[in-house]
Amino acid sequence: MYYRTEQILSAYPMEFTGNTKGRGSILCTDSQGIYLLKEYTGSVRRLEALEGVLEYLKQRGFLAEELVRTSEGGLRYQDVDGTSYFLRKTFRGRECDTRNQDEILCVMKHMARLHVLFSGWKSQVSDEGKESNSDFISQNFFWNARSNDERQTLSVADKHTRELKKVKNYVRGKKKKNDFESEFLRGYGHYMEQAFQVLQMEQEQPLPEDVMQLIHGDFNQHNLLFTRDGLALVGFEKLRCDLFVSDLTNFMRKILEKHNWNSGLGMDMVMAYNTVRTLEPWELRQLYMRLLYPEKFWKIVNHYFNTRKTWVSGRNIEKLTRLYSQEQKREEFLSMLFYLIK
């Protein structure tokens, strides 16, 4: 792999001084900065679209990574075995400290600034009708604006709830249940009540029209770097069209799980975001619904169901037990958040 990496990097105009293996990528350096080389399975057009969005953010002073073209001008390098790679210029810095509440609130404001800029991107596309930008919004690899009926049919909550029912039927049909399955059944009824509540809310209050926007798609502490030039955001590979609340939910759930669903911190996070970009009433409802849905319960159970069941990992049982232990605090926070949507 070392020689292959050297061969791939030789396709770029920089003189790299070293490279090391990182998390799913190769970390490279030259005299100008630091880069990440990763495998890529998408289309060239998607990379071109992504490059346009990143350039748009850069022009507006938002610190985000840059895609690097090869010496021949391509955004994707294809190896002799057919594997494709792309290179991005990133930043030196440290990840967001999830124990530091000041940094967490700083990140929430940064997310809101990103969403404000993405709102501007959508307006620019509508006003100018640039071919490349219009293509970016309309291509199949992004979830563009659909009718409310289509969104309801494709509801992630509905899909996950059906999967939980399937697991319950499987477990109930077993004569002898292992420890994980017993723990699963202990919490199943409680979490399914929450799932059905979310599904009912989806039916009663469908989304407004034309609310889909660009979102980061993988907004978490690993993609937030505190640098000497400020807070930088990286890892845009999952950029897509969705609701801004999706980024918000993803980050808040990860942080609040680490803080035992601290209600004060949770409300401060919402308010910090709100100081930069005001959340609409329907967005607050969506945030409540997405945090109410037992996503963590589904994730643990789904992992168990899709792996070999002849041996049950104690780790999975520990995750369920920890989840149950946090449930009271989680419900307290959700109760506070519910008052904002009344």
Essential attributes:
3-stranded antiparallel β-sheet; globular; Phosphorylase Kinase, domain 1; 342 residues; 54% helix; alpha+beta; Aminoglycoside 3'-phosphotransferase, Chain: A, domain 2
Topology:
Layout: H1 2-9, E1 18-21, E2 26-30, E3 33-40, H2 44-59, E4 66-68, E5 77-78, E6 84-89, E7 94-95, H3 101-128, H4 131-138, H5 148-153, H6 156-172, H7 179-204, E8 213-215, E9 224-227, E10 230-233, E11 240-242, H8 244-258, H9 263-274, H10 281-292, H11 295-305, H12 314-325, H13 327-341
Antiparallel strand pairs: 1-2, 2-3, 3-6, 4-6, 5-6, 7-9, 8-11, 9-10
Question: What is the count of β-strands?
Answer: 11
Q: Level of helix content?
A: 40-55%
CATH architecture of the largest domain: Alpha-Beta Complex
Low-confidence stretches: 129-154
Main structural class: alpha+beta
The CATH C-level class name of the largest domain: Alpha Beta
Strand content: 5-15%
User: What gyration radius follows from the Cα positions, in whole Å?
Assistant: 22 Å
Write down the CATH topology of the largest domain. Aminoglycoside 3'-phosphotransferase, Chain: A, domain 2
CATH superfamily of the largest domain: Aminoglycoside phosphotransferase (APH), C-terminal lobe
Number of helices: 13
What summary fits the major beta sheet?
6 strands, antiparallel
Overall mean confidence score, pLDDT:
88
In terms of quaternary structure, what is this? Answer: single chain
> What's the end-to-end separation, in Å?
57 Å
Shape, per Cα inertia axes: globular
H/E series? HEEEHEEEEHHHHHEEEEHHHHHH
Count of the separate structural domains: 2
